[in-house]
Specification:
The structure is a single chain. Helix 1 crosses helix 6. By secondary structure, the protein is α/β, with parallel strands linked by helices. The longest helix has 15 residues. The strands form two sheets. A nine-stranded mixed beta sheet has the order 5-4-1-8-9-10-11-12-13, sandwiched between helices.
């Protein structure tokens, strides 16, 4: 498919520097909305990202990571303060524990009308972590663009074309989450369940997708990658099962390396 035929995808919300310590000492550029944007681009789609960084070295690193992955950064603004960081302890058995998160200027970022108009030109927009998610959904919906949201990091289901949730490997909890999302106004609910795969519910029918069998190195960002793979297929009009398969395949690749996408850790 030629680049001009690809749907332009957008992602708005958080970014961060994931700082690993303990049994592993490295850091990676990450964050739900940023990870989704990078994966969109790596899947071959022109992609716009909107969010905030601080006027610091972490902020410069985040911008460079987006630009190196060909993500359009016209919507990336610099706010007074510091860029977001997450401190993740890596245990000897490989288990990861998030011990500290500071969303910093990400929590202060609210898109203006100009940025909302730019995002509305996309074929689909994903919302990551944002304290202003309710307002963003309303404004993007009013502009007629389909939207998804990671409902594990931002609240509200109304006006969503796709609500993404996460339930560990508990399928009963996953079903309850999906029903709650549909009851809250989402048109489609997709719940990832780690090694148990994922389920989707549209208020009438259930769809199940198994996870790709792999030996995981690091699951950081796997859910974000699932979202990117799913939406990239969904925006092309593929069938629901195909979208879930694309999400599972993208997530599986992410689990084969450290960090939310393949990058050189520092």
């Amino acid at each position: 498919m030629q680049a001009s035929e690809r749907p332009a995808l957008g992602s708005i919300g958080d970014n961060t520097i994931d700082q690993y310590f303990g049994s592993r000492n490295q850091s990676f550029v990450g964050g739900n909305a940023l990870n989704v944007a990078v994966q969109f681009s790596r899947l071959g789609h022109s992609t716009r990202y909107a969010g905030a960084i601080g006027p610091d070295e972490d902020g410069r690193r985040i911008r460079q990571a987006l630009e190196r992955n060909n993500v359009i950064t016209d919507g990336l603004v610099v706010l007074d303060g510091v860029s977001s960081i997450s401190r993740i302890r890596v245990m000897p058995d490989g288990e990861r524990l998030i011990e500290f998160e500071d969303f910093a200027v990400c929590a202060d970022y609210k898109p203006d009308d100009r940025e909302l108009d730019a995002l509305a030109q996309c074929a689909f927009v994903h919302i990551g972590m944002s304290p202003f998610a309710n307002e963003i959904r309303k404004e993007l919906s009013r502009r007629g663009v389909p939207i998804s949201q990671d409902c594990a990091v931002s609240t509200g289901f109304d006006l969503l074309d796709v609500a993404f949730c996460s339930a560990g490997d508990d399928l009963d909890t996953a079903r309850a989450m999906a029903e709650s999302a549909i009851g809250g106004g989402a048109r489609l609910a997709v719940v990832t369940c780690g090694p148990a795969g994922s389920i989707a519910f549209d208020g009438t029918a259930w769809t199940r997708q198994h996870a790709d069998p792999i030996e995981a190195v690091d699951t950081t960002g796997a859910g974000d990658s699932f979202i990117a793979g799913f939406i990239a297929a969904f925006a092309r009009g593929q069938a629901l099962q195909s979208c879930m398969q694309a999400g599972a395949a993208t997530a599986a690749k992410t689990c084969l390396h450290w960090g939310g996408w393949a990058q050189e850790g520092q």
